TrEMBL record:
It comes from Mesotoga prima MesG1.Ag.4.2. Coiled coil: none annotated. InterPro entries: IS1634_transpos, RNaseH-like_sf, Transposase_11. This is Transposase. SUPFAM superfamilies: Ribonuclease H-like.
Length: 523
């Protein structure tokens, strides 16, 4: 049954509409509409309020409508949106399947697999310690979490550490097929993370990239595809030199993934000439950012003539050979304009402050490099200001690869993904104080972070495939607004879902699944 509007034309050309209750009936091979009740003219029904009264009367005979009206104003709700999305990814990527196979597919093992999923989900949504996760799951709608206790999380870390290599290899095999990835070009980089207190046995004093040489640390290396997809990670003692991690990782990568070519990509300031020589001796390829200022070599490179090749609207490249080394100059015209405006602002501010008195400028490192200081005479150094122009919008890369200039520049741009990877991996360990004091638990915890990174990267990739213009952070924020509410009415249990808000629907579209019904009865 359904309502139908029936329109009739008056003699003066106006129309009148009647509301009818009809049903479809089959007559022979055709479907006809049979009028059950003529409810009356629509304008009369609306003006008299009869439509509203009829709706209210009918609502009393519908359990679902009564619940929607009377019972959705519930204070206690449960997180649901991210659970639905990441559970789908968890299964699509084959993580659940590989864990159950490695651990043994039994009811007892299923609890440990659920604990691992809970820890990964928490890392993606609201990172906490393992004790914090044990409390957090009570606010999440997933019935499978109800049987978990603290020991499941700790034991889950032990299992992850034990089967790390097998999980990574099978996971990447699944991901490679799912996203049509290949390993013709991969990136490797390292970072360090420190511990307060003694730390595990693996932690050692070393060259800290966190500027905490007073603390013990571990080194973490991550292998990524050229598309920015994480493949594997390794953990080293805190005193391991970067070049040693490269050698160990290269050997391990070739053994496990049959990769012949690894390119080390690193930012300016992180690489010394001595390290470059060691990397060359080790037979590794590299793309390094070069320190721009106070370098005669860079000035010589920038002064060489040649035409730029356009890679993107905001990126042009030019190759320069200098003293037997290959350099690629990258130029962003939009950044050059921003740099020019910034320089003009600096000159304005300097001129204003010099009129007020130069003493305050001498100690300002930001301004001092633009000043010519001769005893008591302080003035703007016009020569220095002019020399800054050649740096506007530019950065220089040094490489020993056979990649094209375009590929070198684009490969270096992927470095931010590697750096972001490290921020994700380090976020859990940087929670103070650190709650893990054994190598096994620390390695298991970092593996949780790695799996979370894979899940996030996979979701971003799927969002990109459907052309979503929203960021991962925006999607996740809206997903967390999708809540679940359990309601009991006359002895029956119902599960209600809040509306899909903002950009959350893009996540469902990307994974080709529908949001759950707004209301359903549960047993």
């Amino acid at each position: 049954m359904f309502l139908r509007l029936k329109h009739f034309k008056n003699k003066d050309g106006s129309t009148r509409s009647y509301l009818q209750l009809v049903e479809n009936i089959r007559v022979g091979n055709k479907t006809r509409q049979k009028v059950l009740v003529n409810l009356g003219r629509v304008d009369d029904l609306q003006n008299s309020g009869q439509i509203d009264r009829l709706i209210e009367s009918l609502r009393n005979f519908s359990t679902k409508e009564w619940i929607r009206k009377e019972a959705l104003n519930v204070n206690q709700t449960y997180l649901w949106g991210p659970v639905i999305i990441f559970e789908q990814l968890w299964k699509e990527l084959g993580i659940e399947r590989v864990l159950k196979r490695l651990l043994g597919d039994t009811d007892v093992v299923s609890d440990y697999v659920e604990a691992i999923f809970a820890m990964v989900l928490n890392r993606l949504v609201e990172p906490r310690s393992k004790r914090g996760v044990d409390r957090w799951v009570s606010k999440v709608y997933r019935p499978e979490f109800e049987q978990l206790s603290l020991q499941h999380y700790y034991r889950g870390l032990d299992y992850l550490e034990k089967f790390k290599e097998e999980v990574e290899e099978e996971l990447f095999s699944n991901v490679k097929t799912l996203f049509n990835l290949n390993l013709d070009l991969v990136f490797w980089d390292t970072t360090s993370t420190y511990f307060q207190g003694e730390g595990p046995e693996l932690s050692m004093y070393g060259r800290s990239k966190d500027h905490r040489s007073d603390c013990k640390q571990v080194m973490i290396g991550v292998l990524m595809t050229k598309d920015g997809f994480p493949v594997a990670h390794q953990i080293f003692p805190g005193n391991t030199a970067d070049i040693d991690t490269f050698r160990i990782a290269l050997e391990d990568i070739r053994r496990r993934f049959n990769i012949d070519r690894v390119i080390v990509v690193a930012d300016r300031g992180m690489i010394s000439n001595g390290l470059i020589e060691e990397i060359d001796k080790a037979g590794l390829s590299y793309i390094f950012g070069v320190k721009m200022r106070r370098s005669k070599r860079v000035e010589a490179v920038l002064n060489q003539p040649g035409d730029y090749e356009e890679v993107e609207e905001n990126l042009k490249v030019k190759e320069v050979l200098h003293e037997g080394e290959r350099y690629v100059i990258c130029f962003n015209p939009f950044q050059a304009e921003r740099d020019r405006i910034k320089s003009e602002e600096i000159v304005k501010n300097l001129s204003k402050k010099l009129k007020e008195g130069p003493k305050s400028l001498v100690g300002n490192r930001g301004y001092r490099r633009y000043l010519n200081i001769q005893k008591t005479d302080v003035k703007i150094d016009q020569e220095k200001m002019a020399s800054e122009v050649k740096y506007n919008g530019k950065y220089v890369l040094r490489t020993n690869t056979k990649l094209t200039n375009r590929e070198v520049a684009q490969s270096y741009k992927l470095l931010w993904k590697v750096e972001r990877t490290f921020r994700e991996l380090k976020s859990g360990l940087d929670l103070r104080p650190i709650y893990h004091y054994t190598d096994t638990r620390v390695k298991g915890h970092i593996m949780i972070c790695f799996l979370a990174l894979v899940m996030e990267t996979a979701l971003c990739r799927k969002l990109k495939e459907i052309g979503s213009t929203f960021s991962y952070a925006e999607i996740l924020e809206d997903l967390t607004e999708i809540r679940a509410v359990e309601i009991t009415v006359e002895g029956k249990r119902f599960l209600a879902r809040t509306e899909t808000m903002g950009n959350a629907y893009d996540a469902f579209k990307a994974l080709k699944i529908r949001p759950p019904n707004l209301l359903k009865e549960i047993t």
